[in-house]
């Protein structure tokens, strides 16, 4: 279980996050919603260790958790970025297998076998040798999800997973997130799409814009 208590963060004198408190139950999906200037992505970056916070506490499984330190060393939180951030010069298979090899020190043969298994689970087995420019937006997103899952995170975070997709693909994303929930993967989803949040969320946390 991930628990945040009274998280505060200011940027250039403007308070972005104020007394943010919530907990995510293992195996469930939490949606963070709110207007575009409410600090949703900032909060996600704090949770994933990609940004600092000024005050407050974070615990994971009832133990103190410093995302900037602990997540970099243990990789317990994975992130699927809004713009996917796939490496354009690497194939689908290489994008998924790279982090386990470089960060976790996994043998290349093993990492590629695991990557192929993940790609098969996400209906991408026949796309393993393709490059990002050859993939649709929906397939790029699934590659990004496979890449995050390859590090075996305890929690998987998404930043606006439907924003770069056509409306026809949003139901596919919802189905995938629900499938991962059924596999007991804890997920945190930042979204401005309330209808999408209703489909996938066990819990919803609303961030208000700060003056």
Automatic annotation (TrEMBL):
Gene Ontology MF terms: ATP binding; ATP hydrolysis activity
Domain ABC transporter: 2-211
Superkingdom of this protein's organism: Bacteria
Pfam families found in the cross-reference section: ABC_tran (PF00005)
InterPro entries: AAA+_ATPase, ABC_transporter-like_ATP-bd, MetN_ABC_transporter-like, P-loop_NTPase
Keywords: ATP-binding, Nucleotide-binding, Transport
Keyword Disulfide bond: no
Similarity comment text for this entry: Belongs to the ABC transporter superfamily.
Protein name per UniProt: ABC superfamily ATP binding cassette transporter, ABC protein
Source organism: Lapidilactobacillus concavus DSM 17758
């Amino acid at each position: 279980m991930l628990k945040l208590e009274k998280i505060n963060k200011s940027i250039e004198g403007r308070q972005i996050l104020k007394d943010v408190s919530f907990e995510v139950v293992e195996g469930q999906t939490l949606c963070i919603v709110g207007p575009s200037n409410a600090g949703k992505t900032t909060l996600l970056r704090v949770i994933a260790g990609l940004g600092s916070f000024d005050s407050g506490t974070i615990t994971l499984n009832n133990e103190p958790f410093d995302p900037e330190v602990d997540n970099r060393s243990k990789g317990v939180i994975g992130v699927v970025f809004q713009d996917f951030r796939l490496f354009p010069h690497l194939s689908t298979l290489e994008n998924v297998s790279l982090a386990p090899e470089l960060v976790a020190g996994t043998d290349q043969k093993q990492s590629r076998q695991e990557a192929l298994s993940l790609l098969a689970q996400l209906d991408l087995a026949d796309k393993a040798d393709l490059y990002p420019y050859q993939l649709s937006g929906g397939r790029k997103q699934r590659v990004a999800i496979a890449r995050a899952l390859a590090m075996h995170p305890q929690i998987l975070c998404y930043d606006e997973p439907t924003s770069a997709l056509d409306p026809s693909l949003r139901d596919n994303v919802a189905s995938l997130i629900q499938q991962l929930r059924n596999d007991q993967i804890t997920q945190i989803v930042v979204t401005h799409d309330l209808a999408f949040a209703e489909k996938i969320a066990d819990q919803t946390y609303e961030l208000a814009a700060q003056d």
